[in-house]
Amino acid sequence: MKKAIVIVVFLFILKPILPVLEYAINYDYIVKELCENRDKPKMACNGKCHLMKELAKASEKEMPASSDKKSAHHEFEVLFFEDKNYSLGLNQEFPIESNLNSEYSNLYFYQDSILVFHPPTV
What we know:
Layout: H1 2-14, H2 18-25, H3 27-34, H4 48-70, H5 90-93, H6 102-105, H7 112-115
């Protein structure tokens, strides 16, 4: 079962390359019989015109499947932020006094000399 799946996947991968492989395998036949410019040897077409037609046919067969995906509905997500300040009006009803109780304001002190590490002296 795994071998069958591998073969099918391998064929899907090689599908776009099949016209080139066919051109390489049947090169002599394509140059002598299928080339449109075989009467004009100066062009040195060597069947490339036939190869281009086959590649165009192969790409046309793939286009409907891929064009359906491209024409699918595109969804855009709109994201916006609205900055709202919700106020309960507490500042108007309960004004905050800038002069707090002086007893508690003296409890805080800051010494930056403690923060600097000094190694012990010997």
